[in-house]
Write a structure and sequence with these properties.
homodimer, alpha/beta, Aldehyde Dehydrogenase, Chain A, domain 2, seven-stranded parallel beta sheet, four-stranded parallel beta sheet
């Protein structure tokens, strides 16, 4: 069997299993999650041993320390994965929802019911904890899943999937609902992206390159997102003393994630005070700066700060590190135009005590999350009380911003008549 | 400028215009719709003349009568298009909606607002009225649109778009919000499908081939649907006297549309009575039948009916004509298995007075619309009180079943703090 045929067979098996899974109860699916949590804890030693193989091969292949750390599974991390599973088990089941209940003008009784999407295809990079995370969220929402992990984590993913499938079996759920593509060939990903008759949604979890690859090659709808070129505009009517810690939080609290701040736009009137204060404050956190000419002139005299003149491409860069762009703007209009030109549509905000202006900003800026007097770091399933996060969508279809359990479902129309015919 | 560059420039112009359109008021957008209605009526003569060019070329190219009829614009049809516009103007504006208003556990005030998707790409076949229909629904929902019509209708589409753009201008809305790809080259469609940075959604309006083409070639999310292989299962507990007119309605009321019935599945116990009665009743409407062996044996003796033994592929065919498949099944389980194997996920129903069984069917069958004791012909934006219909989606992402105005929107998260930082 070729790789393509094998992937197709896995997708078909997932689809068939999804039909059975769809009819399972909340209790059964939650029992699976709790059982899997226990099994992971029990088999910690075997998981760590398998993970050691990946780490050794990764080290031999020259992966850097950060990559190896992402790959590493420790007893503590495994216990964390188990706790996450128990938390997901406690979340409300979106599949029990009925909504838009009404009688139509034609007399039919109508409502909508939440249903699983069907089969999720998930393509992800090195972190093996994604394997359990995705398996949990898929089964919780009644979806089968075909998983394609990174080649660096293949031994870890193998054992995690085996444990998850054993837990399905012990819970009376169909084992085939979780499929792992055990191949490191690129053809395997391509084959998955072609199964539009069998797979309902592709979720890429990884960098910009992976997202672009999926969008280019997939015949299946792809959730794209996770790329955040995020802005804060500091207006002349901002409280500067209160604004500074917010900007610092957005930049330094966790610089490697997509909702971290990339560019600060500063109203010209307040720039002479704000820019030097901001640069001095964040320099203590080892932030370095990419400044337009005006900002550079305001901060260049400061001792011990790392400044560079921003190239135009710098304002189109997601830094994912302790780098911050600073540009001076004439007014809010110029700031909004800058954001419209450079934002990736993830998270953008205004700091101002002018409520009317803030409302104009919130209405106009077309990002998944728009903020008033807040750090951009809240664009996250946990912070937005979704309970779980599958992905952060920056596209507009289906779901936007952090996606929780409900966003892994669709709905169907249920129509009840009395031997009714259309007039 | 190459075709590809030209299409890209149009998409970019649409995107820029969409930014302005998004900030227009409901009143402005409704004024556009009413003005366009008046303009179409006023310019009926010019439209009919342009349409005459298309009809003449179509006749010379050998288009059949049905195709020419789809292409034809008469004063009555133009008046109908104008009335549709006035009706859309009266529908509620989805963009005014705010929902999920709440205070998060972290203290931020949160809500979601409906926003336009941005830029719609619509690829459609010969009927020129789609041009106005799509323009109306796009502008109503604050979306810009790039339209790519069929080559047979190019002269008609040109004048309709010109009138629509003039109406945008007169209403103070950006003319560039409606773009018409005035090229008959296939490269133009391909170029549109590649503009994932500029276009948010592709809506194909046409046959299965067009949908497959878009899904294969697009980097932009595609709404697929409109293909209905629809079933009614007649259970042993059905009221046969009342079931017959429902089956007839589903098959003959408008056989050329996607929600028309394709296959009747009959419980074995009632087949000896139902099948001959059904065949005789529908034969009066010139229906011909594709029967499995058992159904064939039950009807073959009837005078003046057109029967054929069904090939297996017949049960995977959307007839779009006066043909009906009939298969005998052991029980409801077998009927559901048949539907799971052959349905396109559009509209499927059960006729039965057994409420528990009906609920099982409604829960299990995974189609966009599932029916109990009803014709399948109600899967339609008008019948489901949506006011307008953009497409009927048989995919699970974003929207399922008939899509109305709301389904042409997305949402954004609005988050308001008090100079708030993440803990």
């Amino acid at each position: 069997m070729s790789v393509i045929e094998a992937v197709r067979a896995q997708a078909a098996a997932a689809r068939a299993a999804g039909r059975v899974l769809r009819r399972s109860s909340s209790e059964q699916r939650n029992a699976f999650l709790n059982r899997l949590a226990g099994d992971l804890r029990e088999q910690t030693e075997a998981i760590v041993a398998a993970n050691r193989t990946d780490l050794d091969q990764g080290a031999a292949a020259g992966l850097d320390g950060a990559m190896l750390d992402r790959l590493r599974l420790t007893p503590t991390r495994i216990d964390g994965m188990a706790s996450d599973l128990e938390r997901v088990a406690e979340l409300a089941d979106p599949l029990s929802q009925r909504f838009d209940v009404r009688t139509l003008r034609n007399g039919l009784r109508a409502h909508k019911r939440r249903v699983p999407l069907g089969v999720l295809g998930v393509i992800y990079e090195s972190r093996p904890n994604v394997t359990i995370d995705v398996a949990a969220l898929a089964i919780k929402t009644g979806n089968a899943a075909v998983l394609r992990g990174g080649k660096e984590a293949i031994a870890s993913n193998r054992i995690l999937l085996r444990i998850a499938r054993d837990a399905l079996q012990s819970s009376g759920l169909p084992v085939e609902a979780l499929q792992f593509i055990d191949s490191i060939e690129r053809e395997a990903s391509l084959a998955l992206l072609q199964q539009d008759e069998l797979v309902d949604l592709i979720i890429p979890r990884g960098g910009a390159g992976l997202h672009a690859f999926c969008r280019r090659e997939s015949r299946i709808p792809v959730i794209t997102g996770g790329i955040g070129i995020c802005h804060l505009y500091v207006d002349q009517a901002a409280n500067l003393t209160r604004a500074l810690p917010v900007i610092r939080n957005a930049k330094v609290q966790r610089p490697t994630v997509c909702n971290a701040l990339d560019t600060v736009l500063v109203h010209r009137k307040i720039a002479p005070r704000l820019v030097p204060e901001l640069v001095q404050l964040l320099a203590k956190d080892q932030v370095e700066f990419r400044c337009d000419d005006e900002a550079l002139a305001l901060a260049t005299h400061l001792p011990g700060v790392r400044l560079a003149r921003a190239g135009e491409e710098d304002f189109d860069t997601e830094w994912l590190s302790l780098v911050l762009g600073i540009a001076i703007v004439d007014d809010a209009e110029a700031a909004m135009r800058h954001i419209e030109a450079h934002s990736s549509g993830h998270s953008d905000g205004i700091l101002s005590d002018d409520a009317a202006l803030a409302e104009e900003f919130l209405a106009r800026i077309d990002s998944a999350a728009v903020y008033w007097n807040s750090s951009t770091r809240f664009t996250d399933g946990g912070e937005l009380d979704l309970g779980a996060e599958v992905a952060v969508s920056t596209q507009k279809l289906h779901a936007r911003g952090p996606m929780g359990l409900t966003e892994l479902t669709s709905y169907k129309w249920v129509l009840e008549g009395d031997y009714s015919s259309r007039a």
